[in-house]
User: Which sequence fits this backbone?
């Protein structure tokens, strides 16, 4: 306040004069307002320090939006005060005026940054609660679930857990999300750069249109003559044609770039998903993953590319409009800047709220997609239990939840529109009022005011579109949270082994303990020591839920043991190359999955290197060739989705051929014949006996006919090996578990035979 004079020396008398209002308070000359704003900011900073000191961090964080409002008020009030000072031209030569204005604006910005970076820059962990039941007896499993989750075939191993709490995940900021989204645009820089060049030409042409429109209006009002009018109209027409042509080129470039971004986002997400460990799929619904791959990825790519286009276009036009406006009247331009922070504050508040609503909306959409995927993939079961109405009502319930979220978004958007419209009209009224004052004060001409108003309207449209961009980005961020959570998730079991040893097929479990990641308090295997000899057939038997299928899952490296090691020929399975290992080990599950493709495609699945001769050899061995050749299209016959066009026995034999075509060292048969009729079982059993020669075979079965010919039988009970030997040796131990199981099975067969 001591510099509010033409002199650059401090005048303490002036300070006293302004503080005690010697000449009274004059809004157009007294700078005491800036002192009051400084005291307000200082008091709030002290309050923030006190909150942090006494560990009220959450309260400080919750106050960020109100404090941003305070900073916005300080900024806008400073510009209003500066315009008041400018009414007296002499005050423009006082250094104190410029010191006060510049410092007040900088202090408002610093005030907001202090709250954001120092007080509220905390990341809060959040937990995602997933209600998921693991019950493979339900027919709602997808093809991938059945094929990859063989560990869930035993009832006790699959005890349902009603609530699973996943480990806390870091919730990254909105800005980090936007940066991650923009990185995808960087990869398509050629198309975006081309679009940007066309955009700049388009925007420059559009920027000059209001100027020549104003000239046309001025020529008409002043009756300047036909020549001047035609000249202005021709220039305006040329600019319009140029903007139209280059606007079309811009749109085409950005549209194709959007398609490229969408492709890359979906590809990256799919690659990340297929690299996850099997435990991830135990707790993540397939419908949710499909929803992220479809609607969420589409929302992300379309929104970010479209909004980048809109933002750049309106940004260039906004800068051009501002240049023209400041050239015509810097005072009138400041009136516009007074309200811009208010619009930005409203957009920030609304954007944060809209982000949350968008994330919840995408979650409800994923839930609805999950139900639709489950029902449509299991229509036979739904129809057989007459549950069409029940499933429709369940789907409608999820759609109603989505509608509820969309209703909240609509209400929020309505309020946002009200505020924007009010601000636009308030700015227009203020510009007209103050502009009229400037015209009457001979600080501006009428022509300049008309042109300024045209640029003002263009500026308002640009600001509205940029605000719409922010809204779109918030929706995009809401959709991208789960996508990025999946995309950037590191698998708990990385398939990063590199060794490719020559394998003979000897598998050894050394003091293996195992619990499923989703049920860490329920041990499945406890100190298991088991050797599966190379070149021999070993059968695993025991009561349901004893851990047999878990052993198969561990051999397949679907999971890793909690403690202990699993080796094949002395090499830890996790150190072996993932692709190489699964070329040497093949699985035939109880419910094999066939994909929607030809018989040839299903047999050669995962074996791109296999020849037609390899396929035919495997088909003959698995008793597939004869029935396939009876089909009209032979090996080109489509199996249908999940093999629906094939019988149970045919699917099982095709699955055996798929396992044999890779000539595995170890063949795992997990209840491969338990669901077949007698004739189909005989054909499958014949194929199994033929393919068991000269390789290690591991059989998981309950039927005596399947296991009694095994070289060695391992009895598994409650996660431990309780008996071991061949059939004859184990039957001699009449007090053993194996004898008990066989006796019960024989008794059950006799009872069944007598009733028939």
Assistant:
């Amino acid at each position: 306040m001591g510099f509010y004079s033409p002199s650059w020396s401090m005048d303490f008398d002036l300070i006293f004069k302004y503080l005690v209002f010697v000449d009274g308070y004059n809004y157009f000359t007294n700078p005491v307002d800036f002192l009051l704003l400084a005291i307000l900011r200082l008091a709030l900073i002290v309050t923030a320090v006190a909150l942090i000191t006494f560990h009220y961090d959450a309260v400080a964080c919750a106050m960020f939006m109100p404090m941003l409002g305070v900073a916005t008020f300080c900024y806008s009030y400073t510009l209003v005060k500066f315009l008041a000072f400018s009414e007296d031209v002499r005050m423009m030569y006082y250094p104190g005026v410029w010191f006060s204005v510049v410092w007040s604006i900088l202090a408002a910005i610093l005030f907001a940054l202090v709250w954001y970076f120092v007080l509220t820059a905390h990341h809060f962990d959040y937990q995602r609660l997933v209600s998921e039941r693991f019950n493979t007896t339900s027919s709602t499993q997808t093809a991938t679930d059945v094929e990859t989750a063989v560990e869930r075939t035993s009832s006790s191993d699959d005890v349902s857990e009603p609530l699973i709490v996943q480990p806390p995940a870091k919730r990254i900021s909105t800005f980090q999300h936007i940066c991650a989204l923009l990185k995808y645009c960087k990869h398509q820089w050629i198309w975006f750069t081309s679009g940007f060049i066309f955009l700049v030409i388009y925007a420059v042409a559009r920027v000059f249109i209001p100027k020549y429109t104003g000239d046309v209006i001025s020529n008409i009002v002043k009756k300047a003559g036909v020549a001047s009018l035609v000249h202005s109209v021709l220039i305006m027409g040329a600019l319009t044609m140029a903007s139209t042509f280059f606007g079309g080129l811009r749109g085409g470039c950005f549209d194709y770039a959007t398609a490229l971004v969408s492709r890359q986002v979906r590809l990256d997400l799919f690659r990340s998903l297929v690299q996850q460990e099997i435990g991830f799929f135990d707790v993540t619904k397939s419908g949710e993953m499909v929803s992220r791959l479809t609607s969420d990825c589409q929302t992300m790519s379309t929104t970010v590319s479209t909004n980048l286009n809109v933002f750049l276009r309106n940004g260039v036009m906004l800068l051009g409009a501002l240049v023209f406006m400041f050239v015509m009247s810097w005072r009138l331009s400041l009136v516009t800047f007074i309200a811009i922070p208010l619009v930005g504050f409203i957009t920030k508040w609304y954007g944060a709220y809209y982000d949350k609503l968008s994330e919840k909306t995408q979650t409800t959409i994923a839930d609805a997609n999950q139900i639709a995927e489950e029902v449509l993939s299991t229509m036979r079961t739904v129809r057989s239990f007459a549950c069409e109405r029940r499933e429709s009502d369940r789907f409608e319930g999820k759609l109603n939840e989505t509608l509820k979220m969309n209703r909240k978004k609509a209400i929020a958007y309505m309020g946002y529109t009200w505020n924007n419209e009010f601000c636009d009209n308030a700015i227009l009224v203020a510009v007209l009022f103050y502009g009229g004052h400037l015209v009457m004060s001979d600080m501006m001409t009428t022509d300049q005011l008309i042109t300024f108003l045209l640029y003002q309207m263009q500026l308002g449209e640009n600001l509205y579109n940029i605000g719409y961009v922010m809204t779109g980005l918030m929706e995009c961020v809401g959709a991208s949270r789960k996508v990025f959570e999946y995309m950037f998730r590191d698998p708990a079991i990385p398939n990063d082994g590199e060794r490719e040893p020559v394998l003979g097929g000897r598998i050894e479990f050394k003091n293996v303990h195992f619990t499923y990641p989703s049920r860490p308090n329920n041990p499945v295997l406890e100190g298991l020591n088991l050797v599966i000899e190379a070149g021999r057939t070993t059968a695993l038997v025991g009561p349901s839920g004893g851990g047999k299928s878990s052993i198969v899952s561990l051999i397949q490296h679907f999971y890793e043991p909690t403690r202990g090691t699993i080796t094949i020929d002395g090499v830890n399975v996790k150190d072996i190359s993932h692709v190489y290992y699964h070329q040497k080990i093949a699985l035939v599950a109880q419910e094999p999955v066939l994909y929607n493709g030809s018989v040839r495609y299903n047999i050669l699945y995962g074996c791109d290197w296999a020849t037609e001769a390899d396929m035919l050899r495997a088909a003959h061995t698995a008793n597939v060739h004869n029935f396939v050749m009876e089909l009209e299209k032979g090996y080109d016959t489509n199996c249908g989705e999940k093999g629906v066009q094939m019988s149970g026995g045919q699917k099982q034999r095709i699955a055996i051929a798929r396992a044999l075509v890779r000539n595995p060292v170890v063949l795992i048969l997990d209840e491969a014949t338990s669901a077949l009729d007698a004739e189909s079982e005989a054909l499958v059993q014949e194929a199994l006996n033929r393919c068991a020669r000269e390789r290690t075979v591991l059989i998981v079965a309950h039927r005596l006919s399947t296991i009694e010919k095994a070289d060695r039988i391992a009895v598994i009970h409650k996660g431990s090996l309780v008996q071991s030997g061949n059939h004859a040796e184990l039957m001699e131990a009449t007090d053993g578990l194996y004898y008990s199981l066989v006796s019960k099975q024989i008794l059950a067969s006799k009872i069944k035979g007598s009733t028939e």
